[in-house]
């Protein structure tokens, strides 16, 4: 387990993404993945109110609903840390005080719980004053409905400003950041943003940790047979740099006797400040490499090999 930033949350080194629940994983598949993750020692599940509006006919909130049904069926709420988000769902858009309060109540109802362990601002909202949003989040923390708050998709400047607003007003502070970060998406996080979160002691929970499946090695030059919902996005990484990254992953995975996905996630987990990468699995076959990643610690030489290949 690893401490999440300066919070009292001890989390498994692989956060299970819930974006597939109610999307590519039906209720039965989702329950199986959750059961196996928990049995392996996992305790940290990430979802959002906007999941899974990707599916025609879905209204939103399906992922939270499935997770809530599983929690009630298993009676294990105290064994699981739940992270969910507000701000990107078209029915609950933005970070106004009224929207944050209403969205939190909706999420609590779907999850069937009285508190959220980590509640994210899913995206920065330039149209709402930071003080208004942070005051609303603070109210949820003070009421016990939320334990800690976090930011997703914030720039370094806005994250620093948010922390300053919280401190000057005595409000709850963002304790973690969820950035888009992986072996083939490094530029937006590394540098000013990574330095800020490390300096401030925030936990880092990267999303798209496997680059829409590209870092599993499933997508290779000349192979366009997959009809996965994420296939087109994954194939966008099949440039010269992407091929170099796959080659480096192949080398390390072969020597270690583990899947490519495990090595890619272990690289993320080995970066300064990263608490737990977020990755999802729609079935048990996809889950196993994620669990294996939680057991791997790459050497300095392996980290450097991957750093060089992905520059």
Automatic annotation (TrEMBL):
Keyword Transmembrane among UniProt keywords:
no
Question: Which keywords does UniProt give here?
Answer: Oxidoreductase
Q: What Pfam families does the annotation carry?
A: Aldo_ket_red
A GO-annotated cellular component: cytosol
Q: Which residues form the NADP-dependent oxidoreductase domain?
A: 13-309
According to the UniProt entry, its GO molecular function terms are: oxidoreductase activity
| InterPro entries the record matches | AKR_Detox_Biosynth (IPR050523), NAD(P)_OxRdtase_dom_sf (IPR036812), NADP_OxRdtase_dom (IPR023210)
Q: What is this protein called?
A: Aldo/keto reductase
Name its species.
Saccharopolyspora montiporae
């Amino acid at each position: 387990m690893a401490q999440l930033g300066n919070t009292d949350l001890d989390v498994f080194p692989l956060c299970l993404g819930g974006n597939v629940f109610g999307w590519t994983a039906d209720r039965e598949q989702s329950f199986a993945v959750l059961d196996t993750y928990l049995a392996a020692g996992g305790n940290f599940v990430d979802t959002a109110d906007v999941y899974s509006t990707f599916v025609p006919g879905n209204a939103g909130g399906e992922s939270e609903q499935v997770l809530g049904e599983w929690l009630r069926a298993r009676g294990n709420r105290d064994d699981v840390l739940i992270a969910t988000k507000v701000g990107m769902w078209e029915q609950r858009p933005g970070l106004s005080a009224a929207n944050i309060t209403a969205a939190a109540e909706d999420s609590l109802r779907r999850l069937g719980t009285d508190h959220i362990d980590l509640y994210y601002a899913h995206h920065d909202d330039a149209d709402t004053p930071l003080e208004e949003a942070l005051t609303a989040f603070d109210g949820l923390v003070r009421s016990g409905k939320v334990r800690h708050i976090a930011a997703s998709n914030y720039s370094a400047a806005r994250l620093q400003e948010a922390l300053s607003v919280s401190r000057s007003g005595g409000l709850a502070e963002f304790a973690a950041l969820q950035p888009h970060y992986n072996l083939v998406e490094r530029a937006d996080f590394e540098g000013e943003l990574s330095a800020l979160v490390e300096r401030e002691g925030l936990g880092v929970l990267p999303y798209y940790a496997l680059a829409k499946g590209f870092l599993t090695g499933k997508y290779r030059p000349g192979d366009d047979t997959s009809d996965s919902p994420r296939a087109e996005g994954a194939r966008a990484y099949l440039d010269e740099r992407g091929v170099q990254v796959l080659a480096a992953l192949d080398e390390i995975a072969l020597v270690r006797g583990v899947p490519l996905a495990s090595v890619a996630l272990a690289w993320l987990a080995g970066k300064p400040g990263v608490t737990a990468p977020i990755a999802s699995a729609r079935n048990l076959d996809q889950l196993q490499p994620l669990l294996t990643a939680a057991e791997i610690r790459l050497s300095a030489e392996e980290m450097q090999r991957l750093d060089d290949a992905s520059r």
